[in-house]
Design brief:
The complex is a heterodimer. Chain A is an alpha+beta fold. Chain A contains six helices and four strands; from the N terminus they run αββββααααα. Chain A has a domain of 152 residues: Ubiquitin Conjugating Enzyme. Chain A is 32% helix and 10% strand. In chain B, 38% of the residues lie in helices and 15% in strands. Classes of the chains: A alpha+beta, B alpha/beta. Chain A: Belongs to the ubiquitin-conjugating enzyme family.
Chain lengths: 235, 1056
């Protein structure tokens, strides 16, 4: 055993590898997955906005993080692409029952991905994280739709230079806890409510990031974005 | 996610048992029905006498009322051999009014095998007198007296509870009848080698206030019928968890308001979400809402006196596999008393003649019985074994019976938890050798050494084996201290062996209540060193070394291959699941036995892991605690747990994360680069926090801190609530037409700030002081001064953002863009001060729940209770808030002592090399019920590929270094498995790093195939391999020759 051990027991890791390889070989319709070689417990995905929704035509990047209690505890999902949706908070966190209360260990990653895709079709304003979106959905669907549509066009249709498309370095943001327990951390806050940690974990040790970053925005995309901003101001 | 301290809950197929029922989901509301003061402060005149700092963890087990009742109890403990001193230790730690230890005998060699407060130089001295000063050190609040006179009736009347150990049956009967008539509560406890006995008589009219120690449950209601009986249906959020015969009352019911605050009504459970109550036909119609809460009803129980109970015994079973043993041992113990009376000694160890005589005596005892105590057929083999080991005195058996007996003392003095009704018998015969080769009489003869009491049972062979053991003890907390005591007594590592104990913690005051090797003067010292020194006093020949390392990947240089390979076994004494899993993995890899245990309040468990025999600790897992959904935390709290977690998150965000981010910005040159790479809106958010911390919110005076706290109050308890109500007004309907604010969603209301409201001022005082600490400014506790400052603070008026869709979306638009050209981001970057221009050093604050002067809990209590008021949730006092927000694990010395006794019985089996699964026992207990259960460990599950059977203990051994001195490449590795094992690898991983997969891009694969394995590992994991790493672990996914997916063992890939 070496210094790279993780807290997932071997039989669980094996299960994860199997699921990931099944997903990679046969992804659910409209979903692409990008497993991270460095850490299989961190799964980057992109979900196509389903037809007939304000998200149609968009590509939404989403990250699934399998914690140390997986599969007893569902993975945490975060939208990396900005989205106007009642059940997605402003940090991208997702609140959906199948990922909380109704979770069963047997459900698996495929089910999680399909559920999140389903959530794009049927939002649930009653467990709203984005109250504004929840309110509009209940009161003024047309307004909800146009707002959601607008954000889709700005953020989810930006092409490779925007915030959608290829995954970034998976070392960003919250990480599942990987070391043998520190009792001091037991009293810690719930992971979801803490602002995403900087760098790579608490010690701030940054890993070499992979080459791709979102800094290069083509002129075309930039112009398109500026147009959208103006459009938005006119609203 | 917090980890359970209880290592495992009991697993039983089929029905859920009572032990499992403490596992409450976050959705079921736990409400303490006792009144809690609105200002959230726990202290009142009455309980000022309880030292909460010392008794903190035990208070969460017993509660304040029971603690106060216990403090009125004078306890007599007679017999200061191993069992007596164990009971005395636990009772003194618990905090009764006084303890008197009684013994008329002098210390002998055989006492030293379990009497941890007797030393060799004490031989010949009175056991009570020698023990008294050592026991008295355990708790300054409990006066301890030694008494060496006769136990007269008159003397006994000074006590509320009397415990007899090492007493004659005549004494038990005589004093027992006296106590029964005088209302003195009596406990009789004895151990004879591997056998233990416990008897309780708490009188004919004993009131038990709490029969199970569980928190009262509560649930939210969705429907109540008008019927006889009325049927209550709960929201499908969570099962109600009630049982038939429970009593409940109601609050917040709309419509059928007759139920609100009603007298406790008995229920009948109809299903997981339904139960029936009283006749509701005369009540008003149910409309909606309501909370049903369990009410604990006092229960009256009646005990028989020892004489009548001897004849008509009622047994509490400790092992369901030994259901007929209690009756046999009941006769057996009486026969031993008869033997002792006749010969004035115990049966000699493994002496055949004494064994025969005891059997004859047992037959006589049995045939003299007229009542239900008579057994149909005596188990002659069992009685013979009782005779053979009766002269023994074993530390682990005393620890178990002593822990249980001490809990009974507490029950007797408090009425808290259900007592043992009335006899409890226990045996650990599985500790004897597995084969018929039992110890001989010669081997077991006393030889005037401190292990005589143990040699009497096992002979000298075991003693030698124990002396040469090398054990790694992980943790020197409650379980660790108890383990060390037992290690010292049984003589573990007293020869060429060694115990290495590691713990990175220092001693705190709240530890002293159960970590009995520590004294008040040890506070702030390292646990491992202090504990090691303390047990050296108990047995100077134990070889013990203390370390201060946390086990984990970072200490694998210390606990490396050589270290683990030299060990005989590992004992965990940990308080969290992560570290347990880690040690389990290490033990599986090095194929070492692991002793695992845990406690939670009165519950405890023991698991033993034996290489190539049992499953490992990680093979089975408890369902993790449910976390609170984020939307519940953010907008829809309905229980105090939700507001406390919210408050805890507030603390972390405001006083830890913000200053940490700001400090990183100031000191870490890579910070900006890293931040800008974060996805979505995060860069702007992070920089916005940094900007606020360094510029807009940065205080220059105490007054600024007060102003900040005041404005933050306004924002959290007024503005944000008003904004939420703007989006979802109280009369909002859902798409199905039902009220939006109903069921688990409680409609909030904003608060109005007032300096005359104590809770509001509590918040300002705590918040402002923490804020000042964060910036290194002096704080203040002058409330009147703060009131004055507050009068000058300007609080901007707030209008909910309504109809400003453009503004909202504009901001969304601005916030949303993660690319560097975003204007808001640019603006922020330009406004941030340079590191040089900022003169403060920011202090991130680490939450510390146990310091009552640091404002941490003050802030948590105030912010949680303010939010609770927003949502009309009943507030929680400081004590309860600390339990929940601090994720405190209730703990009591009794449970730990009993659990560790069981652990050490397993240790004795391991050291002898027991090979049968049925020789080992995993144990579960709940002293509150009381409930005990033992089960055979689960065998390691068998897997198979081709015709090869394997378990988690098996692996492939692959030597990475080839004969030509070069390391294997990936291609060679894949080929090796294809050729040698007929397995085609489809995926290859090391830890969470994926080294190879069939779906890898072709180019990447091509590049990788010719690289040595270690190079791929370093490349993918982005971590260097340390010099101490001699081998790597690979996991494989494989296909067999017929292209079927097969499960195979892991690979140990040796590189050095």
């Amino acid at each position: 055993m070496n210094s790279n051990v993780e807290n997932l027991p071997p039989h669980v890791l094996r299960l994860v590898y199997k699921e990931v390889s099944a997903l990679a070989a046969d992804p659910p319709e409209g979903i692409k997955i990008y497993p991270s070689e460095e850490d299989i417990t961190e799964l980057h995905t992109s979900i196509e906005g389903p037809e007939g929704t304000p998200f149609t035509g968009g590509i939404f990047r989403m990250r699934l993080v399998l914690g140390k209690d997986f599969p007893a505890v569902p993975p945490k999902g975060y939208f990396l692409t900005k989205i106007f949706h009642p059940n997605v908070g402003h940090k991208g966190e997702i609140c959906v029952n199948v990922l909380k209360r109704d979770w069963k260990a047997e459900l698996g990653l495929r089910h999680v991905l399909l559920t999140i895709k389903c959530l794009l079709i049927h939002p649930n304003p009653e467990s709203a994280l984005n109250e504004e979106a929840g309110r509009l959905l209940l009161e003024d669907y047309a307004e909800y739709e146009s707002r959601a549509r607008l954000l889709t066009e700005i953020h989810a249709m930006g092409g490779p230079g925007g915030t959608s498309g290829a995954p970034q370095d998976p070392s960003d943001g919250p990480q599942p806890k990987k070391h043998a327990g520190d009792p001091a951390k037991r009293a810690g806050p719930s992971a979801a409510a803490v602002p995403a940690a900087l760098g790579n974990g608490a010690n701030g040790a940054s890993t070499t990031s992979s080459s791709s970053s979102s800094s290069s925005v083509s002129n075309v995309a930039g112009k398109k974005k500026a147009d959208k901003k103006r459009a938005l101001r006119r609203l | 996610m917090s980890s359970s301290p209880l290592s495992k809950k009991r697993r039983l197929s089929g029905t859920e048992t009572k032990t499992g029922s403490h596992c409450s989901s976050s959705n079921s509301v736990r409400t303490d029905l006792s009144h809690t003061p609105a200002n959230g402060m726990a202290k009142n005149g009455n309980d000022a006498e309880i030292d909460e700092g010392l008794y903190s963890r035990q208070l969460y087990v017993l509660g304040h009322d029971a603690m106060k009742r216990m403090q009125n109890s004078n306890v007599l403990i007679s017999g200061m051999r191993g069992l007596g001193v164990e009971i005395a230790k636990n009772v003194i730690l618990g905090g009764v009014r006084s303890v008197t230890v009684h013994d008329q005998g002098a210390a002998e060699w055989r006492d030293l095998s379990s009497q941890f407060y007797l030393r060799e130089e004490d031989l010949g001295k009175n056991r009570a007198e020698v023990s008294q000063p050592r026991l008295a050190e355990l708790n300054n609040y409990v006066p301890v007296t030694a008494y060496t006179g006769a136990l007269t009736e008159d003397y006994l009347t000074k006590f509320q509870v009397v415990v007899l150990t090492n007493s004659t049956v005549e004494e038990q009967k005589h004093l027992g009848e006296f106590c029964h008539n005088k209302g003195i509560k009596l406990i009789v406890a004895d151990t004879r080698g591997l056998f233990g006995q416990l008897f309780c008589d708490f009188g004919e009219e004993m009131i038990v206030y709490d029969t199970n120690g569980e928190q009262p449950l509560s649930a939210m209601i969705s429907m109540i019928t008008k019927d006889n009986p009325g049927v209550v249906t709960c929201l499908d959020e969570a099962r109600h968890g009630f049982e038939n015969g429970d009593h409940v009352t109601f609050t917040e019911v709309q419509g059928m308001t007759e139920l609100n605050g009603c007298q406790p009504v008995e229920i009948k459970v109809l299903g997981p979400y339904t139960f029936s109550i009283c006749d509701t036909t005369g009540f008003s119609d149910y409309v909606r809402g309501g909370i049903v809460s369990q009410v604990k009803m006092p229960k009256k129980i009646s005990f028989k006196s020892i004489c009548s109970s001897l004849a008509e015994p009622e047994f509490l079973l400790t092992d369901f596999a030994k259901f007929d043993r209690p009756g046999q041992m009941h006769i057996g113990f009486q026969a031993i008393h008869a033997f002792q009376k006749k010969h004035n000694r115990l049966p000699a160890p493994w002496n055949q003649a004494d064994g025969d005589e005891l059997l004859t005596l047992a037959k006589e005892v049995n045939s003299a019985q007229t009542g239900s105590a008579k057994v149909e057929q005596l188990d002659e083999a069992l009685i013979a074994k009782m005779s053979y080991v009766a002269a023994g005195d074993l530390s682990p058996v005393n620890a178990f019976i002593g822990g249980v007996a001490a809990q009974e003392v507490m029950k007797a003095s408090t009425g808290k938890f259900m007592p043992v009704m009335q006899w409890l018998y226990f045996d650990a015969l599985e500790c004897l050798p597995e084969e018929e080769a039992m110890p001989t009489e010669a081997e077991c003869k006393p030889r005037s050494c401190r292990y005589d009491g143990q040699i009497a049972v096992f002979g000298t062979k075991l003693q030698d084996m124990l002396a040469n053991q090398r054990y790694f003890l992980v943790g020197a907390g409650a379980i660790g201290c108890e383990l060390l005591k037992n290690f010292a007594m049984i003589g573990l590592a007293s020869g060429t062996g060694e115990v290495i104990v590691t713990d990175m913690d220092t001693i705190e005051k709240s530890n002293l209540n159960r970590q009995f090797l520590f004294r008040p003067s040890d506070v702030t010292k390292m646990k491992s060193d202090t504990a090691a020194a303390a047990v050296k006093q108990m047995n100077p020949s134990i070889n013990i070394t203390g370390h201060q390392n946390r086990v984990g990947p970072e200490t694998e240089r210390v606990y490396d291959d050589d270290f683990f390979e030299s060990l005989d076994g590992v004992a965990n004494a940990l308080d969290n699941v992560d570290a347990r899993m880690y040690m389990d993995r290490r033990c599986v890899y090095y194929r070492k036995p692991l002793l695992e245990s845990g406690t939670l309040g009165t519950k405890g468990n023991v698991q033993v892991v034996i290489p190539f025999l049992t499953e490992s600790y990680s093979s089975s897992q408890d369902p993790p605690e449910k976390s609170i959904p984020i939307c519940t935390l953010k907008n829809f709290p309905n229980a105090i747990e939700h507001t406390l977690q919210w408050a805890r998150d507030e603390f972390e965000g405001l006083f830890k994360q913000s200053p940490e981010n700001a400090m990183q910005y100031l000191t870490d040159t890579k910070f900006m680069e890293r931040t800008l790479k974060l996805p979505g809106a995060q860069p702007v958010e992070v920089l916005d926090v940094v900007y606020k911390t360094l510029v807009t919110d940065c205080p220059h005076s105490w007054a600024d801190c007060v102003a900040w706290a005041r404005n933050h109050w306004q924002c959290q308890y007024s503005n944000n609530i008003r904004q939420l109500l703007h989006n979802f007004p109280p009369n909002q309907l859902t798409s199905s037409g039902a009220p939006f604010w109903s069921g688990p969603k409680r409609c909030p209301h904003p608060l109005e700030f007032s300096t005359s409201n104590d809770l509001h001022m509590d918040y300002i005082m705590a918040g402002a002081n923490l804020f000042a600490q964060m910036y290194g400014l002096p704080g203040s506790t002058d409330r009147a001064g703060v009131v004055k400052i507050l009068q000058e603070v300007s609080v901007p008026t707030f209008t909910p953002r309504s109809g400003v869709k453009i503004h909202v979306s504009d901001q969304e638009l601005q916030n949303s863009n993660s690319s560097v050209d975003d204007s808001k981001l640019e603006e922020l970057k330009s406004q941030l001060p340079s590191a040089e221009s900022f003169q403060y050093k920011l202090n991130p604050i680490d939450f510390e729940k146990d310091d009552d002067t640091n404002f941490h809990m003050d802030f948590i209590v105030a912010s949680s209770n303010l939010r609770a008021e927003n949502y009309d949730i009943p507030p929680a006092d400081r004590h309860k808030s600390k339990l929940i927000a601090g994720k405190i694990i209730p703990a009591i010395a009794t449970t730990t002592a009993a659990v560790v006794g069981l652990v050490c019985l397993e240790l004795i089996k391991i050291v002898q090399g027991h090979k049968k699964l049925e020789s080992y026992k995993n144990g579960f207990m709940n002293l509150a019920l009381p409930f005990f259960a033992f089960s055979e460990p689960i065998a390691a599950p068998k897997h198979k590929y081709y015709e090869i059977d394997w378990t988690l203990w098996d692996r492939f051994e692959v030597t990475g270094l080839q004969s030509n001195g070069e390391e294997m490449t990936l291609q060679q590795f894949l080929d090796y498995f294809k050729n040698e094992h007929k397995l085609e690898i489809t995926m290859l991983s090391q830890g969470v790093s994926m080294l190879y997969s069939f779906f890898m891009p072709a180019a990447k694969l091509k590049e990788r195939l010719d690289l040595p394995m270690t190079e791929i590992v370093t490349k993918v994991s982005k971590k260097k391999l340390g010099k101490h790493v001699k081998a790597l672990v690979f996991e494989l996914c494989c296909n067999d020759l017929s292209d079927e997916d097969v499960e195979v063992p892991y690979v140990r890939y040796t590189i050095r």
